[in-house]
């Protein structure tokens, strides 16, 4: 018999009844039922119920056991007594009668329980992450993550992609966030950077003649944490393809993501053909470029109706006169809501930095035409209200809210209101995956702080219309071959058809005020490579963490990452970041303004590095 186990804790079935087996695992729960002890023995694979009665030679040892002790148990497999079966357990029809128990690893008093799913403070969960990971939900999330990554690899290779590994120590490159810098010991005063993304390397792979690249790529960004963004590091399915159009990228990526959500989505419906929504239309209809298409509400621009001379509501007229807009957000069936519903939404909007949400509650006159009620209804004549109702697709029994401000701010608050109203009225179908493409991002935007035209998204995207567009069009009217994938209101990835032509690149940067010297200094390797025959290429990089978060039904990335950092980018388990010792700083030719770490005591051998294992 094997030293520790003949079976795992999830393997035994009725076919094993009557056989002697050996299990090993953790004591998940220990219950005393009138002198008979029951232990739910847990390992990576499942749980088996162990029974120890006072006649068992293992009873005295079993009485000493506590939660999370690691034990070996020997004994025969029995059928559970009738009426005690557990259909929710794979091993729920059998139990192990303990004839012998060996303690393999006793456990100290637990700082947090493992059994159950009680919520505990983040600080405790992260400091004792090894205990947190034993909990069933989190354990299953991490297994799901591994299975998703394995499936992604299989699907990419099935489409002819080759996996490559790109450098981790590289040069600093502006990707929209701060770099993590690594000082060089052999080059005093110089630093490597951890890659924010393998962007330049994957494009260089295309220039080198490798046609289809992918990688489950680690990326490092020194940015603040959010629920859908891990501080420090994250992983993405990094993809690049040569000799492709935007449609080719879409045709490649859609079956991969659709297949992943179908494989691991537990039967929830998945979009079969991803809708393509131009950026400008998304900002109008949904108030953002990350629309949740499970929400049926659509925002409407009603600025022209409030501009009507018959409308006397001065607040909106002033906004429009100053170049702003008025956006309408429908609220189907909201006429039956109490006054508190409208007041709370108005207060919420003010808390979001808005002046508030105007609203009209809709009733009907004797002809069935809409009649408005509410604070601003008296300022809107019936014929104008009818046009507003038609634009917002509302009628009697509904309500309509209004956001008025400069376009960007009005879009933002209208988008947030659309989400809130959709959820409060229970209009959002939570049990499905709705995916779409956002396309036609503007190449440039106006930088109000610097009073200049600047890149709005990715400076290395190919402008639609190429060099001719750059030379003949107003820069603020030029779109780029840039695209995002969005699922249920979460941005999964950004991508683009790349600007592979040095002449087009020089002009694109010149419009934003950057001369060729900037290209040489900041992106010299890639810029020079493009001068030696670069193929048209494009790619994308869906976020693995966010995909798994959606599949697991979690709202925070911490729940699907093995060892995440806290909101302050601290690893509470390993104690990172930590101060360097004076000796380490001297070797790196650095000085620190913070208090130095203590040097090891004389004669103390440094701890061996685990990385050679």
From TrEMBL:
PROSITE patterns referenced in this protein's UniProt entry, alphabetically: AA_TRNA_LIGASE_II
Span of domain Aminoacyl-transfer RNA synthetases class-II family profile: 144-564
Key word Electron transport present: no
Region feature Aspartate, mapped onto this chain: 199-202
Pfam families: GAD (PF02938), tRNA-synt_2 (PF00152), tRNA_anti-codon (PF01336)
Ligase as UniProt keyword: yes
Site keyed Important for tRNA non-discrimination: positions: 33, 83
UniProt binding sites for L-aspartate: 175, 221, 457, 498
Protein location: Cytoplasm
Listed GO MF terms: aspartate-tRNA ligase activity; aspartate-tRNA(Asn) ligase activity; ATP binding; nucleic acid binding
Binding sites annotated in the UniProt record for ATP: 221-223, 491, 543-546
Reactions this protein catalyses: tRNA(Asx) + L-aspartate + ATP = L-aspartyl-tRNA(Asx) + AMP + diphosphate
EC nos: 6.1.1.23
Alphabetical UniProt keywords: Aminoacyl-tRNA synthetase, ATP-binding, Cytoplasm, Ligase, Nucleotide-binding, Protein biosynthesis
Single GO biological process annotation from the record: aspartyl-tRNA aminoacylation
UniProt family annotation: Belongs to the class-II aminoacyl-tRNA synthetase family. Type 1 subfamily.
Biological role stated in the UniProt entry: Aspartyl-tRNA synthetase with relaxed tRNA specificity since it is able to aspartylate not only its cognate tRNA(Asp) but also tRNA(Asn). Reaction proceeds in two steps: L-aspartate is first activated by ATP to form Asp-AMP and then transferred to the acceptor end of tRNA(Asp/Asn).
Name this polypeptide is given: Aspartate--tRNA(Asp/Asn) ligase
Origin species: Lichenibacterium minor
Lineage summary: Bacteria, Pseudomonadati, Pseudomonadota, Alphaproteobacteria, Hyphomicrobiales
